[in-house]
Specification:
The chain folds into two domains: 154 residues; 107 residues, no CATH class. A hairpin with a 4-residue loop joins strand 4 and strand 5. Helix 1 packs across helix 3. By secondary structure, it is of the alpha+beta class. The protein is 25% helix and 28% strand.
Length: 290
Protein backbone atom coordinates (compact mmCIF):
# COMPACT_ATOMS: atom_id res chain seq x y z
CA UNK A 1 0.00 0.00 0.00
CA UNK A 2 1.39 3.39 -0.99
CA UNK A 3 1.16 6.27 1.47
CA UNK A 4 1.82 9.94 0.71
CA UNK A 5 2.55 12.76 3.14
CA UNK A 6 0.91 16.17 2.90
CA UNK A 7 0.95 19.48 4.75
CA UNK A 8 -2.36 21.06 5.77
CA UNK A 9 -2.49 24.85 5.74
CA UNK A 10 -4.83 27.79 5.34
CA UNK A 11 -5.83 28.84 1.83
CA UNK A 12 -6.17 32.46 2.98
CA UNK A 13 -4.03 34.40 5.46
CA UNK A 14 -7.00 35.32 7.64
CA UNK A 15 -8.26 31.74 7.90
CA UNK A 16 -8.71 30.45 11.46
CA UNK A 17 -10.97 27.39 11.18
CA UNK A 18 -8.72 24.37 11.57
CA UNK A 19 -8.74 20.95 9.95
CA UNK A 20 -9.58 19.35 13.29
CA UNK A 21 -12.55 21.66 13.82
CA UNK A 22 -13.93 20.80 10.38
CA UNK A 23 -13.54 17.08 11.09
CA UNK A 24 -15.34 17.46 14.43
CA UNK A 25 -18.20 19.24 12.65
CA UNK A 26 -18.47 16.49 10.05
CA UNK A 27 -18.41 13.92 12.85
CA UNK A 28 -21.49 15.56 14.36
CA UNK A 29 -23.49 14.97 11.16
CA UNK A 30 -25.49 11.91 10.17
CA UNK A 31 -23.88 9.69 7.52
CA UNK A 32 -26.25 10.90 4.81
CA UNK A 33 -25.42 14.55 5.62
CA UNK A 34 -21.68 13.90 5.32
CA UNK A 35 -22.01 12.99 1.66
CA UNK A 36 -20.62 15.50 -0.85
CA UNK A 37 -19.48 15.16 -4.49
CA UNK A 38 -19.58 11.37 -4.29
CA UNK A 39 -17.43 11.27 -1.13
CA UNK A 40 -18.18 10.70 2.54
CA UNK A 41 -16.03 10.70 5.67
CA UNK A 42 -17.01 7.27 6.91
CA UNK A 43 -15.07 6.85 10.14
CA UNK A 44 -13.41 9.27 12.57
CA UNK A 45 -11.31 8.22 15.55
CA UNK A 46 -9.83 11.05 17.64
CA UNK A 47 -7.00 10.53 20.10
CA UNK A 48 -5.84 13.92 21.35
CA UNK A 49 -4.30 15.76 18.42
CA UNK A 50 -4.35 12.67 16.20
CA UNK A 51 -7.27 11.98 13.87
CA UNK A 52 -7.66 8.59 12.19
CA UNK A 53 -9.97 8.95 9.19
CA UNK A 54 -11.51 6.74 6.53
CA UNK A 55 -13.07 8.31 3.45
CA UNK A 56 -15.24 6.47 0.95
CA UNK A 57 -16.24 7.15 -2.62
CA UNK A 58 -19.39 5.54 -3.94
CA UNK A 59 -19.09 4.09 -7.43
CA UNK A 60 -22.64 4.32 -8.77
CA UNK A 61 -21.89 4.32 -12.49
CA UNK A 62 -20.57 1.39 -14.54
CA UNK A 63 -19.60 -1.50 -12.26
CA UNK A 64 -17.78 -4.81 -12.77
CA UNK A 65 -19.53 -8.18 -12.61
CA UNK A 66 -18.61 -11.34 -10.71
CA UNK A 67 -17.58 -14.77 -12.01
CA UNK A 68 -15.56 -17.91 -11.30
CA UNK A 69 -13.34 -19.96 -13.59
CA UNK A 70 -16.27 -22.29 -14.23
CA UNK A 71 -19.21 -19.83 -14.35
CA UNK A 72 -20.18 -16.90 -16.54
CA UNK A 73 -19.99 -13.32 -15.41
CA UNK A 74 -23.10 -12.07 -13.64
CA UNK A 75 -24.23 -8.93 -11.86
CA UNK A 76 -22.84 -8.07 -8.44
CA UNK A 77 -26.44 -8.15 -7.27
CA UNK A 78 -26.49 -4.73 -5.64
CA UNK A 79 -29.86 -3.56 -4.37
CA UNK A 80 -31.48 -0.30 -5.42
CA UNK A 81 -29.55 2.60 -3.88
CA UNK A 82 -26.46 0.50 -3.16
CA UNK A 83 -23.07 1.18 -4.72
CA UNK A 84 -19.50 -0.08 -4.58
CA UNK A 85 -17.59 1.82 -1.88
CA UNK A 86 -13.91 2.63 -2.45
CA UNK A 87 -12.06 3.38 0.80
CA UNK A 88 -9.15 5.73 1.50
CA UNK A 89 -7.68 5.96 5.00
CA UNK A 90 -5.76 8.95 6.35
CA UNK A 91 -4.18 10.14 9.60
CA UNK A 92 -3.87 13.79 10.62
CA UNK A 93 -1.31 14.98 13.19
CA UNK A 94 -2.31 18.42 14.48
CA UNK A 95 1.11 19.16 16.04
CA UNK A 96 2.80 19.19 12.62
CA UNK A 97 -0.30 19.69 10.43
CA UNK A 98 0.68 16.49 8.66
CA UNK A 99 -1.91 14.50 6.73
CA UNK A 100 -0.81 11.05 5.53
CA UNK A 101 -3.14 9.52 2.95
CA UNK A 102 -3.42 5.97 1.64
CA UNK A 103 -3.34 5.73 -2.14
CA UNK A 104 -6.33 3.94 -3.63
CA UNK A 105 -6.55 4.23 -7.41
CA UNK A 106 -10.36 4.24 -7.31
CA UNK A 107 -10.87 5.94 -3.94
CA UNK A 108 -10.75 9.63 -2.98
CA UNK A 109 -7.41 11.28 -3.80
CA UNK A 110 -5.79 14.33 -2.24
CA UNK A 111 -7.52 16.89 -4.47
CA UNK A 112 -10.95 15.32 -3.91
CA UNK A 113 -10.40 15.19 -0.14
CA UNK A 114 -9.31 18.83 -0.13
CA UNK A 115 -12.44 19.80 -2.06
CA UNK A 116 -14.58 17.69 0.30
CA UNK A 117 -13.11 19.26 3.45
CA UNK A 118 -13.54 22.78 2.09
CA UNK A 119 -17.22 22.14 1.47
CA UNK A 120 -17.58 22.00 5.26
CA UNK A 121 -15.25 24.85 6.30
CA UNK A 122 -17.88 27.62 6.06
CA UNK A 123 -20.58 25.65 7.92
CA UNK A 124 -17.99 24.86 10.61
CA UNK A 125 -17.02 28.54 10.91
CA UNK A 126 -20.67 29.60 11.23
CA UNK A 127 -21.27 26.89 13.84
CA UNK A 128 -18.35 28.29 15.86
CA UNK A 129 -19.67 31.85 15.57
CA UNK A 130 -17.14 33.03 12.97
CA UNK A 131 -17.58 34.74 9.65
CA UNK A 132 -17.21 32.17 6.87
CA UNK A 133 -15.46 34.61 4.51
CA UNK A 134 -11.79 33.87 3.97
CA UNK A 135 -11.96 30.35 5.36
CA UNK A 136 -10.40 27.45 3.50
CA UNK A 137 -7.81 24.71 3.87
CA UNK A 138 -5.11 23.49 1.51
CA UNK A 139 -3.54 20.02 1.36
CA UNK A 140 -0.12 20.23 -0.30
CA UNK A 141 2.58 17.58 -0.77
CA UNK A 142 5.63 17.72 1.45
CA UNK A 143 8.61 18.60 -0.72
CA UNK A 144 12.09 17.55 0.43
CA UNK A 145 13.93 20.73 1.42
CA UNK A 146 17.32 19.41 0.22
CA UNK A 147 15.97 18.67 -3.26
CA UNK A 148 14.31 22.11 -3.38
CA UNK A 149 17.54 23.85 -2.44
CA UNK A 150 19.50 21.90 -5.05
CA UNK A 151 16.89 22.67 -7.70
CA UNK A 152 16.86 26.40 -6.88
CA UNK A 153 20.57 26.70 -7.75
CA UNK A 154 20.05 25.49 -11.32
CA UNK A 155 19.77 27.98 -14.16
CA UNK A 156 20.15 25.79 -17.27
CA UNK A 157 17.82 22.83 -17.80
CA UNK A 158 19.03 20.33 -20.38
CA UNK A 159 16.54 17.45 -20.23
CA UNK A 160 13.29 16.19 -18.71
CA UNK A 161 12.80 12.42 -18.53
CA UNK A 162 9.24 11.67 -17.42
CA UNK A 163 7.14 8.53 -17.26
CA UNK A 164 3.48 8.89 -16.35
CA UNK A 165 1.06 6.03 -15.72
CA UNK A 166 -2.66 6.56 -16.45
CA UNK A 167 -2.52 10.34 -15.88
CA UNK A 168 -5.81 12.19 -15.27
CA UNK A 169 -5.72 14.10 -18.55
CA UNK A 170 -8.62 16.39 -17.67
CA UNK A 171 -6.64 17.81 -14.77
CA UNK A 172 -3.17 18.17 -16.30
CA UNK A 173 -1.66 21.56 -15.52
CA UNK A 174 -1.30 23.78 -18.59
CA UNK A 175 0.35 27.11 -19.31
CA UNK A 176 0.27 29.20 -22.48
CA UNK A 177 1.79 27.59 -25.55
CA UNK A 178 2.89 23.96 -25.70
CA UNK A 179 2.80 22.94 -22.03
CA UNK A 180 4.08 19.71 -20.54
CA UNK A 181 0.43 18.71 -20.10
CA UNK A 182 -0.13 19.02 -23.83
CA UNK A 183 2.93 16.89 -24.49
CA UNK A 184 1.64 14.22 -22.11
CA UNK A 185 -1.68 14.32 -23.97
CA UNK A 186 0.20 13.67 -27.21
CA UNK A 187 2.12 10.82 -25.59
CA UNK A 188 -1.16 9.19 -24.61
CA UNK A 189 -2.68 9.42 -28.07
CA UNK A 190 -4.16 6.11 -29.14
CA UNK A 191 -5.29 5.10 -25.66
CA UNK A 192 -1.92 4.06 -24.24
CA UNK A 193 -1.81 3.71 -20.45
CA UNK A 194 1.74 5.00 -19.97
CA UNK A 195 3.49 7.98 -21.53
CA UNK A 196 7.31 8.09 -21.51
CA UNK A 197 8.46 11.54 -22.57
CA UNK A 198 12.01 12.83 -22.97
CA UNK A 199 12.47 16.52 -23.78
CA UNK A 200 15.99 17.75 -24.55
CA UNK A 201 17.44 21.21 -25.08
CA UNK A 202 19.73 22.05 -28.02
CA UNK A 203 23.40 21.03 -28.19
CA UNK A 204 24.75 24.45 -27.20
CA UNK A 205 26.29 24.71 -23.73
CA UNK A 206 23.93 27.55 -22.83
CA UNK A 207 20.81 26.09 -24.45
CA UNK A 208 18.03 25.34 -22.00
CA UNK A 209 14.49 24.04 -21.96
CA UNK A 210 11.74 26.58 -21.42
CA UNK A 211 11.27 27.12 -17.69
CA UNK A 212 7.52 26.67 -18.17
CA UNK A 213 8.17 22.96 -18.83
CA UNK A 214 10.07 22.71 -15.56
CA UNK A 215 7.28 24.49 -13.72
CA UNK A 216 4.73 22.15 -15.31
CA UNK A 217 6.74 19.11 -14.19
CA UNK A 218 6.86 20.30 -10.57
CA UNK A 219 3.16 21.20 -10.53
CA UNK A 220 2.31 17.84 -12.08
CA UNK A 221 4.14 15.79 -9.49
CA UNK A 222 2.65 17.91 -6.69
CA UNK A 223 -0.86 17.33 -7.97
CA UNK A 224 -0.55 13.65 -8.97
CA UNK A 225 2.44 12.04 -7.20
CA UNK A 226 0.83 8.60 -7.41
CA UNK A 227 0.65 8.78 -11.22
CA UNK A 228 4.30 9.60 -11.88
CA UNK A 229 6.67 6.64 -12.29
CA UNK A 230 9.75 8.66 -13.22
CA UNK A 231 10.64 12.35 -13.27
CA UNK A 232 14.31 13.28 -13.67
CA UNK A 233 15.64 16.67 -14.69
CA UNK A 234 19.17 17.16 -16.01
CA UNK A 235 20.38 20.64 -15.16
CA UNK A 236 23.43 22.74 -14.28
CA UNK A 237 24.13 25.87 -12.29
CA UNK A 238 26.05 27.75 -15.00
CA UNK A 239 27.20 27.35 -18.61
CA UNK A 240 30.49 25.67 -17.69
CA UNK A 241 29.15 23.67 -14.73
CA UNK A 242 28.76 19.90 -14.73
CA UNK A 243 25.30 18.54 -15.51
CA UNK A 244 23.50 17.10 -12.48
CA UNK A 245 20.49 14.78 -12.54
CA UNK A 246 17.74 15.69 -10.08
CA UNK A 247 15.27 12.92 -9.26
CA UNK A 248 12.08 14.79 -8.35
CA UNK A 249 10.40 11.59 -7.15
CA UNK A 250 12.82 11.74 -4.23
CA UNK A 251 11.35 15.11 -3.34
CA UNK A 252 7.89 13.71 -2.57
CA UNK A 253 7.18 12.24 0.86
CA UNK A 254 6.02 8.68 0.26
CA UNK A 255 6.25 5.21 1.78
CA UNK A 256 5.11 1.75 0.73
CA UNK A 257 4.02 -1.06 3.07
CA UNK A 258 2.58 -4.50 2.29
CA UNK A 259 -0.69 -5.31 4.03
CA UNK A 260 -2.89 -8.39 3.94
CA UNK A 261 -6.33 -8.65 2.38
CA UNK A 262 -9.09 -9.59 4.83
CA UNK A 263 -11.45 -12.55 4.64
CA UNK A 264 -14.00 -10.35 2.83
CA UNK A 265 -11.31 -9.45 0.20
CA UNK A 266 -11.09 -5.86 1.45
CA UNK A 267 -8.06 -4.24 3.03
CA UNK A 268 -9.15 -3.96 6.69
CA UNK A 269 -9.41 -0.43 8.04
CA UNK A 270 -7.22 -1.29 11.04
CA UNK A 271 -4.50 -2.67 8.77
CA UNK A 272 -4.58 0.42 6.56
CA UNK A 273 -4.40 2.81 9.52
CA UNK A 274 -1.58 0.81 11.11
CA UNK A 275 0.38 1.04 7.86
CA UNK A 276 -0.10 4.80 7.76
CA UNK A 277 1.09 5.08 11.38
CA UNK A 278 4.20 3.10 10.45
CA UNK A 279 4.89 5.50 7.56
CA UNK A 280 4.48 8.56 9.80
CA UNK A 281 6.82 7.08 12.41
CA UNK A 282 9.40 6.39 9.68
CA UNK A 283 9.19 9.97 8.39
CA UNK A 284 9.46 11.37 11.92
CA UNK A 285 12.41 9.15 12.85
CA UNK A 286 14.26 10.22 9.72
CA UNK A 287 13.35 13.88 10.32
CA UNK A 288 11.45 14.13 7.04
CA UNK A 289 8.62 15.86 8.89
CA UNK A 290 8.92 18.14 11.90
Amino acid sequence: MKIYGYQVGFTYKKGVTTFGEVIDHINSLKLADRFYAGIRLESIIRSGGILKLDFSRLRQAVLPGKATQATNTTSLGLLAGEAVSEETAAIYISKTNTLAIQYNQFGPHRTAIENYINNFTSPTARKLGRKPDGEGLSISPYINANVQAQFAKMSIFKKIDMKVATPPIGHIHRTSGMSLGAVVDMGLAGGTETAHIVLSAGRGKASSLNRSFIKDAINYIKAFPHGVEKLCISAKEAVDSEIEILDLLDSILKHEIDISVGADRRYPRTERLNAIETAINYWSTNKLIK
